[in-house]
Predict the structure of Aminotransferase class I/II-fold pyridoxal phosphate-dependent enzyme.
Amino acid sequence: MVDLFAKIYKDKGPLGKWASQAEGYFVFPKLEGEISNRMKFQGKEVITWSVNDYLGLANHPEVRKVDAEAGKKYGSAYPMGARMMSGHTELHEQLQNELAEFVKKDAAYLLNFGYQGMVSTIDALVGKDDVIVYDVDAHACIIDGVRLHLGKRFTYKHNDVESIEKNLKRAEKIAEQTGGGILLISEGVFGMRGEQGRLKEIVALKEKYNFRLFVDDAHGFGTLGKTGAGAGEEQGVQDDIDVYFATFAKSMASTGAFIAADQEIIDYLKYNLRSQMFAKSLQMQLVVGALKRLDMLRSMPELKDKLWENVNALQSGLKERGFDIGTTQSCVTPVYLKGTVPEAMALVRDLRENHGVFCSIVVYPVIPKGLILLRMIPTALHTMEDIDITLKAFSAIRERLESGLYKRMSSGVSETLGA
């Protein structure tokens, strides 16, 4: 027998091993000031491309006013207790009804947090005789939900319809033996690559296979579709999504989430979601704030229009300069470069210190070795000046990366980075 912590002392994990070099700057950075297109990082103003405030609602004066008034009226504790016991109110019901109408579903149910809500929903929907089929690039909350499943589960190649069908065939064979059903899980928008899930093609497979479709649309809600109802609306298949999930942490610039489906399914889930049955209800300040935000999504389409004006300007500008932004079909804007983790650190430091551009850096094990992913989230608050400065900065850092400057720096060769 060994000490339980022995493995922790020995191995900090693929990301943790970089902690001494990365923490406080590359990971766990401290952005300061009001959430906006420009914030402060280590005392300097930077253009921020790492905040998921798609529609610019986080510090909208109307939103701030409602949040403040709700906080004054209700405090941060009310209602106390879980929904089933003492945490249910008419405003919770009102928000649920308005959300259901917005995403074109019979009913909706509020979740206190998106991550644990997703985990718990998967757990509630399937039993040991059922089979889960899900995208290999699914978000961590989906993966963790699937881990709770005691039955069979299969991953399909990312957004690969042929692989989806192959795994549905495998799932059907298992389900026929166990007497269970099949749950297929996709994302509306994949948060790293920015691609939309192949929802239209997946729905078409319902003609051949008996399965239910569960969609995590955290990045699509509020940004895609004519009304902002998400990827399903964008692809014309919203009615065919059996269980729809979205979070308030992106377009709504808040905390919380919801699921939407037929009334009977929601009635079942609200009595079987362990993360909601045994945890505190979404606090009233957040409920009132979400009602205001949802009203703005419906009544101010110019916010989404401005968002997409910025998205198109940024993405087209990157492509014109020869950058690889993958096959994004959303606001999420990935830029792929070739390099090592140390090179990525030098590159990002150059971006932040000399160009005033702050974006997220993604390296192995999230993406394959030898690649650097710079992930940008355009918002309605960004300006054409922000975009122009960022495009020039990206051209400069690519030139330095390809020249080997960052590699030499990461190898200990003494070189300086001029602006």
